[in-house]
């Protein structure tokens, strides 16, 4: 089987949930004996990222093309486009040069499956369907309009709330119009499947969760600082930035005073400069992008996931579980994971619940280790790449046969 995957960002280096999911999908396909091509947009803020992480020679196993694109908008351009009722966020990711690159590939190669990784590459669907007879599969990493709706509910500023609700309305209209143009849809969670079915989507919808090579996740507790709190994620993604800002604003005095005697580490790419203002020596560390995400996770004890808006499945939580981390998350952050609160994760949805959970964890190492061990068992049972890849293979063959 020949598979083409189209992404709205280059998945190298694998420094976030989106690239991890894409690369693990490719690994699963290759391990199942399939040929894979990857065509990626390379947005301008990634331009200074070099391909620094290819630990298992993945690039040598695929045909890889990337196309540089600038998706930024000036305040004036944004203002003009907001008042254009037909404008969509997805338009920022459309470029005729990338479309021509795809068309040339489709004229030269015949694919069985072409998979679109997220809403922002759907502007290329019409060209793909025109020049290829392959089955087209859509994999939403989130139900995109839900993310914008949830962001809007968190805003007090009436202008920001109006803007987010406007974008949510436009994205929902566009998103639902696109979904039935695909031969099939692969979602990460049962919740996303139920949402799409409620919207009357007629295309087949399969639940294919995040798949991890569990053997790569080997915790070494001799190198773990206890107690310690940490957050790891891209702050270029608005729900992450919103969530960690809430946490820092809510617990700043507790962390820098005597209430919580524990260090808090914030790491990830695209951290805005203003976050440096939160840093307090010996208390709060804003580290930015780390060289090795798993080494960083291993070195800390308690993962904080304060997501207030989002959807889909948080890859970093699944990775944290595989690394036997004790995780404190909002229920929204852990959405889609078959967790048991107090057994393999701790759920906290407000200041009081977070404070109670943090105090319990930083004073009881054995309790943390038990939560982490149970989390690892959950990851092994539900997110093993071999199992997920086998299900994906069966799904692809089923769609091809229809």
TrEMBL record:
Signal sequence residues: none
CDD domains: GT4_PimA-like (cd03801)
Pfam families, A to Z: Glyco_trans_1_4, Glyco_transf_4
UniProt cross-references to Gene3D superfamilies, sorted A to Z: Glycogen Phosphorylase B (3.40.50.2000)
Transmembrane segment boundaries: none
Top-level taxon in the UniProt lineage: Bacteria
GO MF assignments: glycosyltransferase activity
Domain Glycosyltransferase subfamily 4-like N-terminal positions: 16-216
PANTHER family: GLYCOSYLTRANSFERASE
Listed name of the protein: Glycosyltransferase family 4 protein
Protein source organism: Mucilaginibacter straminoryzae
